[in-house]
Design goal:
alpha+beta; two-stranded antiparallel sheet; 3 helices; globular
């Protein structure tokens, strides 16, 4: 069953600043509120960094192609911030709403990364509405 895209809490931007930078004091998680129940949902930046090279296989080639179109990832394959795209699926622990998290991963120095959250979009199963 092909996933459908619902509401987005964040849409891609060419000017958005990085949310995480290796070596800089910061939280290790990106936290956003569920669009339905407002429960906080946490995503570890390291999971996004590790997924950067394999996210298309992880979420499936067909869904990856749809996500690239939805988030307007160009022919070059780069994120709007200039980094490499990475995507993960996460769920709300409270209401089980599902989301696709899209981030740009920029390795600005050997093993040092900037992570820019570029998309948070609700995922709907076929025929599902919220």
């Amino acid at each position: 069953m092909m996933e459908q895209f619902g509401k987005s809490a964040i849409s891609p931007s060419y000017t958005r600043k990085a949310h995480f930078k290796s070596g800089a004091p910061s939280n290790d998680n990106y936290i956003f509120d569920c669009l339905h129940c407002e429960n906080p949902i946490s995503v570890r930046y390291q999971l996004l960094i590790r997924a950067a090279g394999q996210w298309e296989t992880t979420i499936g080639e067909e869904f990856a192609t749809a996500a690239k179109d939805f988030y307007k990832i160009g022919v070059v394959g780069k994120s709007q911030d200039g980094g490499w795209p990475s995507m993960l699926q996460v769920s709300c622990d409270s209401c089980e709403a599902r989301y696709l998290i899209y981030a740009g991963i920029d390795e600005y120095y050997n093993s040092l990364y900037r992570v820019t959250i570029q998309g948070i979009t609700e995922l709907l199963g076929a025929g599902e509405e919220r």
